[in-house]
Amino acid sequence: MRLALFSIVLLVCSVYATQGFEDTTLEDDDFAEFEQFDADDDDVAITDQEYGEDDVPVKPKSQPKEPVPSNVEPEDELLVEDEDNEFEHFQDPEEFEGFQDTAPKSSEQPKITISKVPVVIRPRWDAYWLEGILCCLLTTYALAYAIGRAKNTSIAANFLKLHKPLLEDNFTLVGETGLEEVARSEERGWSRDAEHCFTMWCSGRQCCEGMLLTLKLIKRQDLVHVLMNAVRPTQDTLQLRVELGKDDSDPFVLCIAQKKVATRLSKEMQDLSMFCPERRPGDKHGLPATLSVMSECAEATGGILDSRVTAALHQYHKYVQYIHVSDKYCGPKQVEEQTVTKPPETEKLVLVSLTLGPDGGGDEVRPLLLLVFYLLDKIKRLRLSKEALVKCEKRRQKAAEVWMRGAHAARQELAAQKREEKRKQEKEKILAEDDPEKQRRWELKEQKRQQKRKAPKMKQLKVKAM
Q: What is the pLDDT of residue 207?
């Protein structure tokens, strides 16, 4: 009986003892899944957790409050780990072992010196001298462009105003624009190809298919060209290109030009270098000494240079650069590097280049235009003799043969180049092989070909037996 009572008392004491170690701050409904903290009876005594002023736990009234042991120190309190701290490893001393030992130990902080920069209130314009010079140059160039363009336009308009009535008297259509809605002749005029170049087409006249007027003025809109023109002056020019019909002239080539211009044309123009290799001074034909005459046929020269033409050239020879009449005009010579395989296409033309005065064509242009129209009528009526025609035709046949021989030589040269390239490819192919016998046979074949090529050519004659 005593043993049973003692066991009951011991059981009740143990229950009260276990309830004393439970954490009364944890509620069953919020932290049911967490286990209670274990504590060692001998070493550590569990104390109440630290809470803020607002987070005071509510203890049940029925639970008796256990006394806090006095031997518990602050270091032995329970530490709650914060899972949201991502930079916890920086506070770990074992993470950076040896770092503090190797780092330089300096108690003094680096001194930062801040210099006092004076505040500039007014801008210094002398620092922008280069930009200022460039702006001045651009402004000067723009002003020169505007002034030069206006000057060239005024010269073209003045030329058209002075000489358009003469052109309308000789041509039906003056200044064709290609627009159907432009019907009035007052609205037709120059076509601006560039700021210094104007063109105008005239058609509807006998003795020619049409005439193209090209007014080439000084590049007054270009400041660089204006400065170069001050050192090496040039003049405004008027170029006339008259296209003749097939039956409008006999075959001959004639050129009357200034001496320097004649030397240049004889070297550059294909028809002059082929049909008129000789240059004769103008005084032998009754012309001023400053002019030179290049003619294929003396009969054509005498028929063209009559007294009226000679008198006009004597009076206005300083404004005439050249007068070129040709039935085989093909332009400048072709470059020697280009391969000529066929004769070039030729045209029947009359080319005239006139120098204009300082005002861009004044009283000196009208007599020269009348001279050109007179030459067109003269060329139309001129008929060479049979002997002169035969000589001219022989020269043209000879020139055609020269062209054909040149084309044949060019074709042969191309064929030789192709054969040489083919032999080089064959040699490389033979040398790339490892068969010495095949290489030896190819070398023997090549030697025989070279010997046959160097051997003199002999003709074989067959003699019939008696």
A: 83
What are the tokens at 211?
């005439």
d(CA 223, CA 454): 64
Quote the pLDDT of residue 423.
81
Pairing of strands 254-258, 280-281: unpaired
Q: Which of 30, 21, 28 shows the shortest CA–CA distance to 48?
A: 21
Q: Which residues contact 76 (CB under 8 A, 6 or more apart)?
A: 44, 45, 47
| DSSP letter assigned to residue 28 | T
| 204 φψ region: left (φ > 0), alpha (ψ -120 to 50), beta (else) | left
Question: What one-character-per-residue DSSP string does 171-234 give?
Answer: -SEES--S-TT---GGG---EESSSSEEEEEEE--TT-SEEEEEEE---TT-HHHHHHHHHS--
* pLDDT tens per residue, range 152-190: 999 999 988 888 899 999 998 888 655 444 444 445 688
For 278-282, 427-431, 453-457, which range has the lowest pLDDT when averaged over its residues?
453-457
Instruction: Give the burial string for 195-224 (b: 16+ CB within 10 Å, else e).
Output: bbbbbbbbeebebbebbebebbbbbbbbbe
Q: Would you give the end-to-end CA distance of the chain in angstroms?
A: 180
* CA gap 171, 206 in Å, rounded: 9
Cα angle for residues 129, 134, 137 (degrees, 5° grid)? 125
Give me the residues paired with residue 256 across strands: 293, 323
Measure CA 253 to chain center. 42
Q: How confident is the model at residue 294 (pLDDT cuts 50, 70, 90)?
A: very high
Whether 284 and 323 have beta carbons less than 8 Å apart is answered as no
Residue with structure tokens 């085989």?
328
What 8-state DSSP symbol labels residue 70? T
Q: Quote the CA–CA distance of 331 and 273 in Å, as a whole number.
A: 11
% of the chain at pLDDT higher than 70:
68
